[in-house]
Specification:
By secondary structure, this protein is α/β, with parallel strands linked by helices. 58% of the residues lie in helices and 10% in strands.
Length: 763
């Protein structure tokens, strides 16, 4: 039997530990394992890990396989709690390797659960889901009901992550049904009730909120003498703190109850020398005082919370408490100290961490995005007050670095895996290769203004447009919708308005720099509009310069190729399949490109995902041109490319293409000539913008919405013709193709040519 159950591991991990205790092996070398348990109790995870590693050596030499699995499992748990997902996953994988040779169903279910929970916590929903479902099946078969409850809780958390609040609420209620009624599982039940409260509130289930709140109060009083009293009172205090955010007659009562419970948790932490609990309770109490504008008390408490978090090297807590510290400094007018605190907070956020867990803290403003957004505002305000040009420039470069991190976090959040972190390159490299006729534009949509960062060979500058965010959203969405109506000019007023807000403030500078290519790194709703169709009243923007978009400079492969005779894979559909209409002019589109470049053709029933993978595995192609339907939705699981026999999800695209982002010869260009993203859907547009990262391509040519396939065939033919010419980059070639369409009376409306975007490398 696994003898110990740490008070310092979160409720979720407590459940895992308890579940594996039932069928697990007896501990032979008690000295090492018990000493490790003692170190965990103190919050000394590194010391515990050293002891577990010694135990593994002992168990390996004595061929005690279940105990090796257990020790690796404990190491994974410790790293998980320390905010080190990479090392946690390595430890769980070691446990899996032993389980493959020496099966143990109970330990297997626990390891699968832990790995699923780890992937969920870091935003890797695609990897988390099958692991959690496999763990659920195994746990049901073994009748491990506490673990069944915990897994259903995690599946509810996954649904919350996908904004499926009603489904999440059902999962939490199912989890509550399986939760054993005993003191050892009280923390699990408290946690599930907490999550259910969040789901009920977000799905507008007032009756459920009242019912769940009553259950929580009953449970808290019933198990007041449980072994986990400190964590129980902490969690209860956290719930009351959250409930107190909404102004109501009960607000002060909720605040009083929260303070009472958190103070009780602090006393338990002092008695048990539980650094983690001490840090959590002190930090949450500091946040209550912050909201009450008792800043002196809040600052004292948050410094203590940071101290205890440092003792156990808990990066998650350190990030959270530095964020609170930064907010306190802002309110005190201490800008430099606030900047320092926010930078420390961002440095402490574990790699890949997306705040995907369901946490009441999120309801009160704590999120990765908010940390970045608040820091952005802080830097902008300071740069505005700074007269020294050098210091102003340094602040703007720091701001750009911050925006790059945010862009990477957003894409990682969309694709639900850590692919983005593996693809980030040095921003300095981009600056070094930036030519004198190219500029990078960051439009940042703030609440009451649009901030414009213009980066070029000579430095970086800031411009500002005063406009309300709601108005920007409204006009952007109208612009997009009107562009798709190709028989009217209703788009024009919106095209002019957006030009006035985004381009006009920087136009004189672009002219003075003689910019020929403008690369935008769009923000929020601006991702879903084509900058090429912005209009100054006389000309479209594309008539002045070549345009490209980037998901982020650090995510853009800055290298370029001089090869104008690339090997090309051409795939597409002319027939109607799977309920999608036929694309009658795809044949002429593919024939035109094949005539110029040659290449391998996969058409109709030959255009199957297996055939694509086979073709790409046998020969390296620089260009993959896909003339088929594709959709990008707000959820990555709803984003796909249509083949003859299936729908290839965007998250599977890299595997189908079979190329890594930093392969010796990565894909130079991926063309998707019939994509669709819903108007106003910012997340869908984010997915389209990030396709280069996911597909392992330097560049992508893709459309925001599908157009007449005859027009597409013409635009593609001209693009490839122009790109084949020496010294013509991809963005320049797209511009020439769009200009030729503009001259054609049949296709002069921007609804025909503007949806095509050059994404990523523009050279």
């Amino acid at each position: 039997m696994l003898k110990y159950r740490s008070k310092h591991i979160t409720c979720l991990l407590l459940v895992i530990s308890t579940v594996t205790a039932v069928p697990g092996p007896a501990i032979a070398d008690k000295t090492l394992m018990d000493r490790a348990a003692t170190e965990v109790h103190k919050g000394q995870y590194n010391k515990a890990i050293d002891l577990w590693q010694q135990a593994i050596h002992h168990y390996r030499s004595s061929q005690q396989h279940p105990k090796q699995i257990e020790a690796w499992y404990r190491i994974g748990m410790a790293y998980f709690q320390m905010g080190n997902p990479e090392n946690a996953l390595r430890a769980f994988n070691q446990a899996q390797l032993i389980l493959q040779k020496h099966p143990n169903p109970a330990l297997q279910s626990a390891v699968l659960f832990s790995m699923g929970s780890l992937h969920l916590a870091t935003g890797n929903l695609v990897q988390a889901e099958p692991l959690l479902k496999d763990a659920l099946k195994l746990s049901l078969r073994l009748k491990l009901y506490a673990q069944v409850a915990a897994i259903r809780n995690e599946l509810g958390n996954m649904a919350m992550r996908r904004s499926q609040y009603k489904f999440a609420l059902r999962s939490y209620f199912e989890a509550l049904e399986f939760t054993p009624v005993n003191a050892s599982q009280v923390l699990l039940k408290i946690k599930i009730l907490t999550h259910a409260l969040v789901a009920a509130k977000l799905s507008g289930k007032a009756d459920s909120i009242k019912h769940l709140h009553k259950q929580l109060e009953t449970l808290s009083s019933k198990h007041n003498d449980s072994l986990n009293k400190g964590y129980l009172t902490y969690q209860t205090g956290l719930v009351y703190s959250w409930l107190s955010i909404d102004k109501s007659r009960s607000q002060q009562d909720y605040i009083n109850r929260s303070v009472k419970n958190l103070n009780q948790a602090i006393k338990h932490a002092e008695t048990s020398k539980d650094f983690k609990l001490h840090s959590m309770a002190l930090g949450e109490l500091a946040r209550i005082y912050y909201r009450a504008k008792r800043d002196e008390d809040a600052f004292s408490l948050i410094q203590q919370a940071i101290f205890y978090a440092q003792q156990i090297q808990d990066r998650n807590l350190l990030a959270k408490w530095q964020w609170v510290t930064g907010r306190l400094h802002i309110r005190a007018g201490q800008t430099d100290q606030a900047i320092d605190a926010y930078q420390k907070a961002m440095a402490m956020i574990p790699a890949g961490h997306s705040f995907s867990e369901v946490d009441l803290n999120l309801m009160s403003g704590y999120s990765k995005n908010n940390i970045y957004i608040e820091f952005t505002e802080l830097l902008l305000n300071k740069s505005q007050r700074t007269s020294n040009k050098k210091k102003k420039s340094q602040l703007l470069y720091t701001l750009r670095d911050t925006l790059e991190s945010l862009k990477a976090a957003e894409l990682q959040d969309y694709f639900q895996d850590n692919c983005v972190n593996a693809t980030r390159t040095s921003i300095r490299k981009i600056d070094e290769i930036l030519t004198s006729d190219t500029a990078i534009l960051y439009p940042i949509v703030m609440d009451k203004r649009i901030e414009l960062l213009l980066s070029h060979k000579n430095g970086i500058e800031r411009f500002t447009t005063q406009v309300d965010k709601t108005k920007v959203r409204k006009i952007s969405r109208l612009f997009r919708k009107k562009l798709e109506k190709r028989r009217t000019r209703e788009y024009l007023p919106h095209a002019k308005q957006l030009y006035t807000w985004i381009i006009e403030p920087v136009s004189k500078r672009l002219n003075s720099l003689k910019i020929k290519t403008l690369v935008s790194v769009p923000d929020q709703v601006l991702r879903g509009i084509p900058f090429s169709a912005l209009h100054d009243g006389q000309q479209f923007l594309v008539e002045k310069m070549a345009l490209a978009i980037s998901p982020g400079l650090e995510l853009t492969d800055s290298s370029s190729t001089a090869d104008k005779s690339p090997r090309v894979l051409l795939g597409g559909l002319t027939q109607s399949v799977q309920g999608f209409p036929a694309l009658l002019h795809v044949q002429s589109e593919i024939d035109s490109i094949h005539k110029m470049y040659g290449g391998n053709i996969l058409l109709n029933d030959d255009f199957q995902s297996a055939n694509m993978k086979s073709a790409l595995s046998k020969q390296h192609y620089q260009v993959a041109h896909i003339a088929s339907h594709g959709e990008f939705g707000k959820n990555v699981n709803n984003s796909f490319l249509l083949t003859y026999d299936s729908r290839v999800r965007v998250n599977d695209l890299a595997r189908v293409i079979g190329l890594g982002r930093f392969a010796e010869q990565p894909l130079e260009l991926l063309t998707l000539s019939a994509c669709y993203t819903a108007a106003g859907d910012e997340r869908a547009a984010l997915g389209l913008a990030g396709i280069t990262v996911k597909a392992g391509a330097r560049s992508a040519l893709a459309s925001l919405w599908p157009i007449n396939d005859r027009a597409t065939a013409k635009l593609m033919s001209v693009f490839y013709r122009e790109w084949k010419k020496p010294d013509t980059g991809k963005a320049a070639a797209l511009r020439l193709a769009q200009l030729e369409m503009l001259k054609d009376v049949r296709y002069r409306h921007p609804g025909y040519w503007s949806p095509y975007l050059m994404i990523g490398n523009w050279q």
